[in-house]
Automatic annotation (TrEMBL):
InterPro entries: aa-tRNA-synth_II/BPL/LPL (IPR045864). Gene3D superfamilies: Bira Bifunctional Protein, Domain 2. The keyword Isomerase does not apply. It is an enzyme of class 6 (ligase). Its EC number is 6.2.1.n2. GO terms for molecular function: ligase activity. This is Amino acid--[acyl-carrier-protein] ligase. Keywords: Ligase. SUPFAM superfamilies: Class II aaRS and biotin synthetases.
Length: 307
């Protein structure tokens, strides 16, 4: 598989044909084989080994979070096009009969559902900040967390690297601006070295989030001008438009101000995170090294399987 000529459709078809991914009938929503899962498990072990010296506190949140939490975070102001809210049927027997009749007639029955208090988690770190804030002042040397969660973003696509439900592994540092910027710089170096160990071409570049609406372009420009976001890019389906597989983000004191994260003297905390797109890294490995993991380069297997 040559990533320079491998289109999104070609890669997806090859993964289907080799039983690595499975169709669900919805773009961006796929079943994963045991082989695909094992690659992710091996990569996560690598991340764990590299991050172990930091001694981060592990917290795993479910793939859903409170709707009020998402609203307060500011996510809906910036990315309403990506958000997903869980809806459920809350009617009685009469409404249930109507629902079944609508389904039988091929009509849209979703109008009989109502929004719940749960939204789908858009990024693994979002539930963390109010959780930490509720514990009281942050110690002077800051806090470091390791997170993992399924995440949802509504952007259906036939590009296998743009799944709607995917897993994100994150390290998050909450502390002073200097502390969290140093943390991010450390991972910029470690992250690139880690991906290069896997025989994958990559580059780190300045980036911005997909902010929504007229003001989105200004917010994106500000983010780039201040160097708040970097991405590690790997050509998965295109050399011209490589895929962001790792991201390195400095939030300044946004979450500190939003959630009341502060030190004992009342000074708001800053935060930064490094995120690993687990499915994207696995796809990059299959794209560059082929569908048969047993035939992957010995150097790559030595890193992942300790062969």
């Amino acid at each position: 598989m040559d990533a320079k000529t491998f289109s999104s459709k070609d890669l997806l078809d090859t993964l289907f044909e080799n039983g690595i991914l499975f169709e669900s009938g919805v773009d961006g929503l796929y079943g994963r084989s045991g082989v695909f899962e094992e690659v992710i498990e091996r990569f996560e072990r690598l991340v764990t080994r590299i991050g172990a010296p930091d001694k981060a506190t592990r917290i795993h949140f479910p793939p859903g979070m409170g709707r009020a939490t998402l609203e307060k975070s500011g996510y809906m102001k910036s990315f309403p096009q990506l958000a997903g809210c869980v809806h459920s049927f809350m009617g009685g027997e009469r409404e249930h009969a109507n629902l079944l009749g609508m389904m039988a007639r091929g009509e849209d029955w979703t109008e009989l559902q109502e929004a719940t208090d749960i939204t789908l988690t858009p990024a693994a770190c979002y539930p963390l900040y109010p959780t930490v804030a509720a514990r009281g002042p942050v110690p002077a040397d800051g806090l470091l967390f390791e997170l993992s969660s399924y995440c949802f973003r509504h952007e259906p696509s036939r590009d296998p690297a743009r799944m709607q439900l995917f897993r994100m592994r994150e390290f998050v540092h909450i502390g002073t601006g200097e502390q969290v910027r140093s943390f991010r710089e450390s991972w910029l170096t470690r992250g690139k070295a880690m991906i290069e160990q896997l025989g994958l071409p990559c580059e780190v570049d300045l980036a911005n989030d997909p902010f929504f609406g007229r003001g989105g372009k200004m917010m994106a420009n500000n983010q780039r001008d201040q160097g708040l976001k970097f991405e590690l890019l790997i050509p998965v389906t295109s050399a011209e438009k490589p895929t962001a597989c790792l991201s390195f983000n400095y939030h300044q004191d946004h979450f500190g101000q939003t959630w009341g994260l502060h030190f004992a003297d009342g000074e708001p905390c800053h935060s930064a995170c490094v995120g690993f797109g687990l499915e994207r890294v696995a796809l990059a490995l299959f794209s560059h090294h082929g569908a048969d993991v047993a035939a992957w380069p010995a150097s790559v297997r030595a890193v992942l399987w300790n062969d």
